[in-house]
């Protein structure tokens, strides 16, 4: 989880490799209307996001039925969005990729994205609700390199998964 540009796609792919688990990028699951809205510079609202979050939950469910966890890149900005995902997967662990707005804006400015403009970072940050104490999760600071972050996240997982 985390705002646009925080490194979800980068870290999701890397964690998938490191943990030998399938990786699903939520970016790829947005319907065309959502992509066009963001491309035009408008933030999504809750009604745009619910069907997308349901789809993500269904894919996590499908993996659990097959007997495996799935790594998912999904902004999951509000607690209510994470609640919806937890309705599908109560043991979901959220890894919040946290960084300053300056650092993330720099990274967004330096990359090409199919539809997400850097101008939407402000609304992403305004929408973000950090993990609360009762949410199973890990918070990392994205100033570290992807490999260092993967080490930190994997090291933190046993503490999060142990009841
Ligand atoms: N830990 C890191 N250190 C340095 N650069 C990083 C790190 N993580 C990601 N990046 C770079 O920052 C940019 C944004 O990363 P990425 O696209 O993975 O973010 P994202 O959260 O998936 O964004 P979006 O939600 O908009 O798709 C990319 O150019 C990526 O290579
Ligand atoms: O919930 C949202 O506002 C969206 O998921 C965005 O976060 C983008 O999809 C993503 O960050 C860009 O790829």
UniProtKB/TrEMBL annotation:
One of its GO terms (cellular component) is cytoplasm. It comes from the Bacteria. It is an enzyme of class 2 (transferase). It catalyses: D-gluconate + ATP = 6-phospho-D-gluconate + ADP + H(+). Keywords: ATP-binding, Gluconate utilization, Kinase, Nucleotide-binding, Transferase. Its EC number is 2.7.1.12. It holds the Pfam family SKI. Belongs to the gluconokinase GntK/GntV family. This is Gluconokinase. It comes from Labedella phragmitis. The lineage of its organism: Bacteria, Bacillati, Actinomycetota, Actinomycetes, Micrococcales.
């Amino acid at each position: 989880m985390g705002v646009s540009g925080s490194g979800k796609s980068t870290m999701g792919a890397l964690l998938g490799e490191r943990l030998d688990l399938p990786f699903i990028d939520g970016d790829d699951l947005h319907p065309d209307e959502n992509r066009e809205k963001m491309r035009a510079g408008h933030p999504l609202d809750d009604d745009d996001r619910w069907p997308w979050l349901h789809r993500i939950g269904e894919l996590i469910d499908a993996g659990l039925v097959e007997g495996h966890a799935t790594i998912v890149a999904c902004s999951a900005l509000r607690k209510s969005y994470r609640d919806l995902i937890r309705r599908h997967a109560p043991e979901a662990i959220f890894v919040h990729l946290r960084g300053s707005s300056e650092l993330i804006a720099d990274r967004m400015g330096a990359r090409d994205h199919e539809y997400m403009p850097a101008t939407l970072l402000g609304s992403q940050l305004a929408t973000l609700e950090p993990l609360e104490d009762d949410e199973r999760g890990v918070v990392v600071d994205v100033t570290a390199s992807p490999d260092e972050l993967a080490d930190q996240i994997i090291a933190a997982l046993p503490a999060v998964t142990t009841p």
